[in-house]
Amino acid sequence: MTRTATKREEKKHRGVFEKSPGSGVWWVRYFDADGKKRREKVGRKSDAIDLYQKRKADARAGIKLPSNLRHKGETLGVIIDRAIEWYKSHRPRSLRTAQTHLETAKADLGHIVAADLTPKDVDQWISSHKDWSPATMNRYKATLGRALQLAVVDGRLLRNVARLVTARREMNMRVRWLTDDEEKRIVEAIQNRCPEQMPAFTIALHTGMRQSEQFSLTWDEIDFERRKIFLEKTKNGNDREVPINRTCLAALEELKAAREARIAEGKPVNEWLFQSSRYPGQRLLNPRQWFDDVVIDAKVNDFHWHDCRHTFCSRLTMRGVDLRTVMELAGHKTISVTARYAHLAPEHNIAAIEKLDAPTGSQ
User: Fold this and answer.
1) String of b and e for 243-259 (b: at least 16 CB within 10 Å)?
2) What's the topology of domain 180-350?
3) Taking the model in full, what pTM does it have?
């Protein structure tokens, strides 16, 4: 490149600079429509060049800048980092999932100036992950939307563009429950492979708790006297109590006895009901490390841990428990979620329609 060409290139990019040479973080410097000198932190050089050209064009057109310009240069990565800190203090139970979602978004979109993010950017980002199910796409969108909304509340953004992105249609009507024979085979496989995990499986089948609820349980949430499990701030945002039946109680007492034995032996214990065998002293985050192998051993097809929850709801329905009660026991937010199990109690539909056989006005 000639010296003249280099000067042209420098002139083209005038107003775009790297505040700390070698940092990879680029800024823009320009005069706005009121003649006031402005600076904005951007990120990538190419994005800084684009923003500089946009600011110059806006200034020529007399377009006023937004009132929150002091935050205008923040990248989405900065917004996401702040949101992760918010989850740590406000939603610690959701932190692990939210951090996974947000760090994925940061890796893909973190370089974009947050205020320049568009609904199209969000929609294209979601669509680019072909391996995600519609439900997963909606969860990632919702988590990113929460991060953007926090920035709006803080006055760092004018709007949450994720709210303008249409949610994917979810086909989540899958209901898979265990037959008695399948349960027997899984129980045998657990006893052969990892008998210490039997209480976890039993509690899942007899409480219907979500995986995240069950494996974040601490001992102070178990009330043996009242036979209740207290869950704080569940997935739908509410606290709820889970009743303990005799089978579940026996499983909990087995876990309690094992803990007391460790204390008697002078071994360390912690607050978690379910312990990680791979990382001593930490709670079990995911049962897949042993449950996947158990299902294979038992020769049970297409069954996952969440299907224990389906089994809980399905068995209640098939044994005549009304849907409103099933909804309360499962902690569903709306009856429409519970309604997916309605077809499992056809005899109740028949009993209802037969009421029309009686003459009008009769009891």
Assistant:
1) ebeeebeebbeebeeeb
2) hpI Integrase; Chain A (1.10.443)
3) 0.60
